[in-house]
Design a protein that fits this description.
Helix content: 10-25%
Radius of gyration: 41 Å
CATH superfamily of the largest domain: Class I glutamine amidotransferase (GATase) domain
Oligomer: single chain
Shape: elongated
Strand order of the largest sheet: 17-16-18-19-26-25-24-21-22
Strand content: 25-35%
Number of strands: 36
CATH architecture of the largest domain: 3-Layer(aba) Sandwich
Length: about 675
């Protein structure tokens, strides 16, 4: 037997007071004269004995009543398996409010069950204890300890949220807040469905924290999700067939049939077809889109699925440029072959500039820049071109016949490309095409033996530094590089080992290679452009910096919300931080002037919640370790008694109060009914 407040036991010394009063209480008797006292003597002796017994029993009941009352204040208990921590406690309760908690647990959603369990945990603790209520939203108001009453209010306000947090981050947040408490008694509760993809509390070893895990599980574990979508080609072109690939995933152990897929664009809903998806697998379907207008486009994919529906829609956007600009920089006149290659399509706009008259301010407006047979690359031009590539541009380099190797090496080193070595007037023939890379991917249905591959009568040997990470597009028969690709931050550099001059290089006469190579280099600038973002995950957007005045700020606007993102200018780009300000899936506009949107973005809920795989009590115990307590609550009507017994042991203060009342009742009955 132990006592939660043993200092109250000093009050037992006060029990001596009624004993002293009883022992030293002398009743004054009044003499009464009778003629015959023989019979009175017998009555007096009998009455005195009964009065002494009554007084003794009354005293005993009073002592027992006061003793029981004092013990009630001292709160006696019997400790159970866990060591009972005395004094004030700091309690942190995490209630998972992610989308998976909207699934049904018998007759109510898991979130409602979690709120109920949270209230029961709070009720199990004393008024003087302090509480933290935390959810997946990681709100600022949840980062402090509050009173018992405030904790119950916070629990009632919890709603379903798109936020998803690994439980290791949740526990770190709890520890941070609990460490602000003055007490050493720190207790953590995590109420969740414990999905496998967020439960990362492996081998918990913190002995200063009492960790309690309370798993809740739904009655059904079936879900179909629209996982992702992407365009097969990096640039969407007007009046062309653009292939959109859509990945749909089945998260259940049973095959799914007749899953309807539709797309909504320009206000029209078009059926795509029905899908059959094997158990625990995914399928990728294709949609052919014919784009009839330029500018930003919004589209929405849909499937039919129940009961988990947050992942049944997928919002995405893409921008169709009015034209693709190509700039050719050369020492003399422009190349008639380059002009002819792009002349056939009005979508491509080509212009030529002399190396001595370059408009540096306009370089960024071009999707492809071609250096044609320059004798040298000046340091100023090299610096501007390197920055152009880093910002996402494409640069194709054909060195001149008598080029200054020092200037070329200086530039190529700045963009982390291999160096040009001495020029050789020898015949070399291209024999290998890399059809796995984007430039030549899907260009040829089959490579014929009669295909005309480039032959050069003069060329440069290209170094082969392993650190430069060259990707060969066209390779000479002797293994040397004819056309290599280098990725630098957001852009690409394409380096040819031979001049474009047809006197030493017949590439311009190899239409099967030359024309598709130029087209795909021009459109590859947007290869890494995202068409969709994930709420709470992709928190950074990037756009062109169009701010001309200090008072101007970018704003992001959705259907029901508008906010100012964090803004940071980096060169010609503006980086925008979302910082969890977007809560609902849908389309969002970026603008400086509300009447003129600059960009459109599609935001979707995090698909991690789509995987409805849970850890049960046994799996949790294996993964988390012995220091964590697993509370099985499915069969319990209320957690309050269980938590109370775990935190304070088997308590007897209520029984002490009941005993005190019983003793006082017996005393009253003795005084009223026992007539002496």
């Amino acid at each position: 037997m132990q006592f939660l407040y043993p200092q109250f036991l000093w009050a037992l010394l006060a029990l001596a007071i009624p004993i002293i009063i009883h022992l030293f209480y002398f009743r004054r008797f009044k003499k009464v004269y009778f003629t015959n006292v023989k019979f009175l003597k017998e009555i007096k002796e009998e009455t005195s004995a009964r009065r002494k017994l009554k007084n003794f029993l009354t005293l005993l009941m009073r002592l027992l009543a006061f003793g029981a009352l004092i013990l009630a204040f001292a709160q006696p208990f019997l400790p159970q398996d866990n060591e009972v921590k005395k004094g004030e406690k700091a309690v942190s309760i995490y209630i998972d409010n992610s989308f998976s908690m909207s699934a049904l647990s018998e007759d109510v959603p898991l979130l409602e069950k979690a709120r109920q369990r949270g209230r029961e945990i709070v009720e199990a603790y004393a008024v003087e204890d302090r509480f933290q209520i935390i959810t997946s939203d990681f709100e600022g108001r949840h980062q402090r300890l509050v009173s018992k009453e405030d904790a119950l209010t916070l629990i009632d306000e919890i709603k379903i949220s798109p936020a998803v947090r690994p439980l290791s981050k949740v526990l770190n947040r709890q520890i941070q807040t609990l460490n602000t408490a003055t007490t050493e008694n720190k207790v953590s509760y995590i109420i969740s469905d414990f999905q496998k993809n967020i439960t990362d509390l492996k081998d918990f070893r913190d002995t200063t924290l009492e960790l309690n895990l309370l798993p809740l599980q739904s009655v059904q574990e079936k879900n179909i999700s629209l996982d992702s979508a992407w365009f097969e080609a990096p640039v969407q072109m007007i009046n062309q067939t653009n292939t959109l690939l859509v990945k749909v995933k089945n998260h259940s152990d049973e095959p799914a049939d007749n899953i309807r897929l539709t797309i909504k664009q320009d206000g029209q809903v078009k059926p795509v077809g029905t899908l059959s998806i094997p158990a625990n697998a995914s399928v990728t379907d294709s949609i052919n889109l014919t784009i009839l207008k330029t500018g930003w486009q919004e589209a929405e994919l849909n499937i039919t699925d129940y009961p988990v529906q947050f992942d049944d829609k997928y919002y995405f956007t893409y921008n169709v440029a009015k034209e693709i600009n190509i700039l050719v920089i050369n020492d003399g006149a422009g190349s008639k072959y380059l002009n002819a290659a792009f002349k056939g399509l009005s979508y491509f706009k080509i212009k030529n500039q002399s190396a001595n008259q370059i408009d540096y301010a306009g370089l960024a407006a071009n999707q492809l820049i071609i250096l044609k047979d320059l004798k040298a690359i000046s340091s100023g031009l090299g610096s501007e071109l390197a920055q152009y590539v880093r910002n996402g541009g494409n640069l194709l380099v054909f060195p001149g016949t008598s080029a200054s190797l020092d200037s070329y090496r200086s530039f190529l080193n700045s963009v982390q490309a291999n160096e040009l070595q001495a020029y050789e007037a020898t015949d070399r023939e291209v024999s290998v095409i890399n059809t796995e890379e984007f430039i030549f991917q899907d260009v040829f249905e089959s490579i014929s033996r009669n295909i005309k591959l480039p032959i050069t009568q003069g060329n440069y040997k290209v170094s082969q530094f392993g650190s430069r990470q060259e990707e060969r597009l066209l390779t000479y028969r002797d293994g040397g590089s004819y056309l290599g690709k280098y990725s630098l931050e957001k852009g690409h550099l394409y380096l040819c080992a031979a001049p474009l001059d047809e006197k030493v290089n017949n590439l311009v006469r190899s239409g099967e290679i030359f024309i598709p190579m130029l087209y795909k280099m021009a459109i590859s600038s947007a290869k890494d452009q995202q068409i969709a973002y994930t709420i709470g995950k992709d928190e950074v957007l990037e756009t062109e910096n169009r701010i001309t005045e200090s008072e101007m700020v970018y704003k992001v606007k959705g259907q029901e919300e508008e906010f100012i993102p964090q803004q940071k200018a980096i060169g010609p780009s503006m980086v925008l931080g979302i910082n969890n300000q977007i809560k609902d899936a849908g389309f969002y506009q970026l603008y400086l002037d509300a009447a003129d949107p600059l960009a459109y973005y599609g935001f979707n809920f995090d698909r991690r919640e789509s995987e409805l795989g849970y850890l049960n009590e046994d799996m949790l115990a294996t993964n988390v370790g012995e220091l964590a307590n697993i509370i099985e609550s499915k069969s319990l009507a209320s957690l309050t008694p269980l938590i109370g017994d775990r935190s304070r042991g088997v308590s007897f203060w209520r029984w002490c109060l009941i005993a005190a009342l019983i003793f006082l009742l017996i005393e009253t009955l003795l005084l009223r009914l026992w007539k002496v």
